[in-house]
Amino acid sequence: MSETTENLEEYPDRIRELYNGKTLFITGGTGFMGKVLIEKLLRMIEDVKIFLLVREKKGKLAKERIREIFAGPLFDMLKKQRGPQIINRVTAIEGDVMLPNLGISEENRKIIIEEVDIIFNCAATIRFDEGLKKAVLLNVRGTKFMLNLAKECKKLMCFVHVSTAYCHLNERILYEKPYPPPADPHKVIETIEWLSEDIIDAITPQILGTIPNTYAFTKALGEALAVEQKDNIPVCILRPSIVIPIWKEPIPGWTDNINGPTGLLIGAGKGVIRTMYCQEKSYADYLPVDILVNATLCIVWVYICKNDNKSKWIFNITSSSNYKITMEEIINMGRKVVNERIPLNGVVWYPGGTMKRSKIVNYICFFLFHIIPALFVDSILLLIGYKPILCRVQKRVWKGFEVFEYYANNQWDFDNNESLAVRDKMLNPRERKVYKLDGEGINYMDYFTKCTHAARLYILNESDDTLPAARRHMKVMWVVDKVCKMLFVGFVLYYLYQKILSPLMTSIR
Q1: What is the DSSP letter of 60?
Q2: Which of 222, 282, 335, 482 is the most buried (most CB within 10 A)?
Q3: What 3-state class would DSSP assign to 57?
């Protein structure tokens, strides 16, 4: 039986009590997880001070970028509850994780050393095709500089390093323990610093070995650096799986990027993705970003307050041990959402296509249903005076498939007993409600609908008043799709008749 609101108020919120009055230093705060983390902290904690490492970008200073972030829809609920002045609790620290010593001024460094209680190291490049030099400077050397700074902090209670559940890909079952890195992170940093980018790009395949991309390689090295410092500073390593849009709050379905499932959803919804090489019954491990943020806040509380000998310090924040959803189910639900509930604008073909078990069949279908239509449409665009676009889109789709196929056609499982213990043994009913850590009550169809709606609004900038026109367009595309399929079948049958059946009948006569 669920607890009433009155009963819940009888329990303390110990997570809030921990963070109240604390000063936090966050890297990666302008990223997907970072934004949701900051929003949750400011909304739930009455008295918290946040230092946010922000680099100058496109001529905009750190303070300007923070104001831009807070102007986004993600923070509307926060500003409504706490007032617009809540932004004053966030102080920009100008710097860059890729620069030596983080590019922080001596004055700001002294402030951090004197005041910071908890560090959240969330900064990383999450591009799988990132050049090795940049990936190492950000994910590895940047982590090293952060750890060096943490060792100087006088009040440090916890250094939270956000790793990934997919950084030790040779382990088919990932346990909540340290693993040896694929290379010596210090030597890799030294090598990257003195070699030119061209040379590094040329030798990247040899450096990576069997590791499929620079993201997994450099995240494993960054984690190894954090492991090294376990006896010197209070290190807590979090390994989230594939982070997906918000499930519950503050905006269901919200995301700020098209990475991962969201990109597939948009690509399929626009009709530009027609085929994929994927085993239908395989499953991946997905984690809504609000669940990740709640887990982060709770795990840090457990680490600081309930873990005296700090024996528990690595946590796999994953979901597949409790919730498994196959690729086939995801594709079918996504197709139903964009076809029947929330169609996208400017659909170039009726959303459809299938998953292929054979790589060769998928290559053939990609050529037939991706490349040829793209060449045809781009040729028409050129003729009428517009810039071609679809071939460029399909090039990005192909690069995305190269990453997707590796993860979709390999299976990993994750032991997350320590993370489950936080929820089941450590939290009281009030904390379990305020900081929801499980997927109990999730309706996948509703969730995908909200993700599509949010992507429409906040990624594609397609307002709700265009939905009626999108639905009409979808009906037209459905008719076009059926007619084209009938014509294609008719052409194939005619070809078979002319080349096989008709000569055979003539020979029989």
Answers
A1: B
A2: 222
A3: strand
Q: Which residues pair with 119 in a beta bridge?
A: 25, 159
277 by DSSP, 3-state: which? Answer: strand
Q: Is 121 exposed, middle or buried (0-12, 13-18, 19+ CB in 10 A)?
A: buried
Contacts of 37 (CB under 8 A, 6+ apart): 26, 29, 120, 122, 293, 296
Give me 469's structure tokens.
């026109």
Question: For 353, left (φ over 0), alpha (ψ -120 to 50), or beta?
Answer: left
Give every CB contact of residue 63 below 8 A, 6+ residues apart in sequence: 92
The Cα 351–Cα 334 span in angstroms is 10
The CA-to-CA distance between both ends of the chain, in Å, stands at 81
User: What is the H or E stretch that residue 54 is in?
Assistant: strand 49-54
pLDDT by residue, tens only, the chain of 509 residues: 445 555 888 889 999 999 999 999 999 998 999 999 999 999 999 899 999 999 888 788 888 888 888 999 999 999 999 998 988 899 999 999 999 999 999 999 999 999 999 999 999 888 888 899 999 999 999 999 999 999 999 999 999 999 999 989 988 899 999 999 999 999 999 999 989 889 999 999 999 988 989 999 999 999 999 999 999 999 999 999 989 999 999 999 999 887 777 777 888 888 888 888 888 788 888 899 999 999 999 999 999 987 766 778 999 999 877 788 888 888 888 888 888 899 988 887 888 778 888 889 988 888 888 888 888 888 988 888 888 888 888 887 887 777 778 887 888 889 988 888 888 778 888 999 999 998 888 899 999 999 999 999 999 899 999 999 988 888 888 888 788 778 877 877 777 777 777 776 777 66
For 92, the token pair is 């920009």
Task: Please give the model's pTM, rounded to 2 decimal places.
Answer: 0.90
Residue whose tokens read 């609920």? 77
Residues across the chain: 509
